[in-house]
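input
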Amino acid sequence: MFEINALSDAVGAEIVGLDLAQPLDDDTFGRVHQAHLDHQVLVFRDQEITPEQHIAFSRRFGDLSGHVYEQFLLSGHPEILKVSNKKTPEGDFVGLNSAGRRWHSDLSYAEIPSLGSLLYALEIPPSGGDTLFNNMYSAYETLPQMTKDRIAGLKAEFLIGSARKYYTENERPALTSEQLASVPSVEHPVVRTHPESGRKALYVNSAHTVRILGIDNAEAEDLLTELTEHSVKPEFVYRHKWQLHDLVFWDNRCCMHIAEPPPEGANRHMHRTTVVGDRPY
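output
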């Protein structure tokens, strides 16, 4: 039997005493699944897992997607994205170094966005490099009724590499024309309904949301800023301080996250799987 310990009032729970290197029986998996719905972010401590075991556990929640930056997928395991600031002898990053530098929901720029992401810490800095998660249910539920009425039914345009992102080419290589063609802009509702919990959550972010549609551009920009700033108020946020061999599983349908860069000269090397979700409604 494993323990489920809440990590903050905002979001998140720690799972202690569960070995993900071993297959989970249906009852155990059901309890993990419910904990994920209840807490949105699960931190599995002290996991010693292979890429195959990481993939197998992730697949219990659904199909897995690759990533537009296919050059950073793990050789032999295209379901795993390397998130890393380590470098090859030639000086190139071995993984996506700049992943998560702005508040976002993974693959919100995709026609079918992600259900959730599972990030496994193989190497972490001695300090710093935290990841922050927020609760987009709470962000929506605490909006003034006037704002809820205003955004009901509105849609937004999402695009990877949009003008709202600012990375140097060293931090994040430019997408090729073929990569860009594989992820055209999409429209999603500003407020989505979680397909399992039935709760409403804000669904805009500062990384991939280009604009809110159906209203004047200046008004749309102000509204997007208002919503994104409201959603990351401290009372909605949990700060995760990584421990070696943490596996963190978050729900992209009702959470955002942002990754702080590790200190200069310190390495952070992680593996991420991404579970395919559903079309937001």
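quick obs: Residues 158 and 209 are 4 Å apart (CA to CA).
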